[in-house]
Amino acid sequence: MSTTNTSVSDSVSLAPAANWCDHEHGGHTVQFYTEDQSLIDGLSRLVGTALGAGDAAIVIATKPHREALTKRLEARGLDTLTASMQGRYFMLDAAETLSMLTVDGWPDAARFNSLIGGPVTRAAESEGGNARVVAFGEMVALLWAQGKAEAAIRLEQLWNDLGKTRVFSLHCAYPIASFGHEQDTETFLKICAEHSGVIPSESYTELISEEERLRNISQLQQRALALESEKAQRKEVQDSLQRRESELADILENAIEGVQQVGPDQKILWTNKALLNLLGYTAEEYIGHRLGDFHCHQHVFETFWAKLMRQEEIYDYPAELRCKDGSVKQVLIHSNGLWEDGQFVHTRCFVRDVTDQKRLEQSLRDVEKQAAMGRVAAIIAHEINNPLETVMNTFYLLRNHPSLDEDARKLTRIADEEMARVRHIAKQTLAFYRNSESPVPVSLLHTLEDVLAAYNREIQSNRITVERRITTDGTVVTFPVEIRQVFINLVGNAIQAMPEGGTLRVTLRPCLQGMHRSQRSGIRINITDTGVGIPAAYRHKIFDPFFTTKAEKGTGLGLWVSRGIVQKLDGTIRFRSAMQRGKATTSFAVFIPTDGTGSSVA
């Protein structure tokens, strides 16, 4: 084991003991202390030595430090009052002085020179102008404690500028605990750079022997190295955690399904893009608002929230959420709550849009329902058709029977015509279900005129005015019997809606339906009446099978069958019923495509 031949003087030069009184006159030293006791010890030696030698001292300190210093000086037999009267001792309050020399928290040079330069000059002129001046100030420590590091450095610089025009020794002090954070290192070095001498804390200065000081320096070096290594490791861990948090945040923010957090006050804390896009709101319009405000059914939301408050795990909870445009989204919610120490913090909520799925399921149910009804209608039509033929043959023979007079023959002819109509309807029903006919070119105008002619008697007896707005022949390739059935149902319903008379408006025109690239060309037929209208309570089920407002006079199949025919042609049928100028107006609009995209083209 080797040893180094280091002299005592060399070792001390590496780690010298420091004392305020040891520094040259006119210097600017700073002490970093751990305990107030150590500060007062050094300060009492500095001021006591100066006053005892007949020199001058200026102390700018906090009230506790001023009181402790006064007791210590009086214990040494120094008469501070007499020194003050002689102009050799100035004691100022640090906080009050600082407030007077700063503007908006920043040291002002003019105020500093007036407030501090004056006492320094007067102190130097005491004792016939031969007094040496020492000064102590901890205004910089107050600025540092307030988080105003740059202001503290600026005040240190003003002291240095004053030292260029006046001769005095300045000593500052900071609690070393104020520099306990990593981010304080740079500012700490800047403060040290503003001083001609730095006195370390008492943990070092109180060491007496050279060996203890060298051991202390070595220990500090080892701790510094260990801290640097720990700092590097901690930074690596923090960077890794930050990357993972960033990746997780990115996954949640850009997830396909909606994700959100809701606080204990039922207000939305955070949500991702998917949920905002689903509902059409901006973050400002959604986040911070009560979650229940976006639920269509409050009792559904209240049940959901009650489950969460019972700490239940919720899976596939069905709900309907209101979008910004007024539409409704059907969703399934998976959610649970984050609880800490028995207190609810926020939900962890995943929202899946099932609107299209529900719509498809409903469509499948409607198709199955329509198919079942079609089979029933076909069976009924088939069973009616056989006895109907017999009845029609009987009426055919009866209407020419010689025993009947002219009135009876007229009645049999009417009965025969109506039976023919019943047979025609039965055949149409069978054709609709079996799809036995082939599509052919059909003039919608001619078909519509035939239907109006068939209803001419009802139109006249009900005092109905027919208005035609025709701009096309409207030839489409379709099933003649089926399209005729649609017109019969719509015109018949319109006539029955106007028992006291009115206007039947028939429109036939070419048109485009859809938006931009999805537009389709076709023919639009509008059947409009000024009758009794359709009550709002019935509008949502107007196309349902067996739904009717005509009591025993209606079967409830007309509009249902019409919609099925139009949909088979890849067309649409819609209606609108509203009050205009105190009168009800109901309009059914049928669109049949002619661009080759639907079944209407052979």
Question: Could you describe the 3D structure shown?
Answer:
The protein is an alpha/beta fold and 602 residues long. The protein folds into four domains: 15-206, 3-Layer(aba) Sandwich (Rossmann fold); 258-353, 2-Layer Sandwich (Beta-Lactamase); 355-436, Up-down Bundle (Methane Monooxygenase Hydroxylase, Chain G, domain 1); 438-593, Heat Shock Protein 90, CATH 3.30.565. 48% of the residues lie in helices and 22% in strands. The protein is built from 21 helices and 20 strands. Strands 3-2-6-7-1-8 form a six-stranded parallel β-sheet, with helices on both faces. A hairpin with a 2-residue loop joins strand 4 and strand 5. Helix 2 crosses helix 3 (63-75), helix 8 packs antiparallel against helix 9 and helix 16 (355-398) packs antiparallel against helix 17. The longest helix has 44 residues, at 210-253. The termini are far apart.
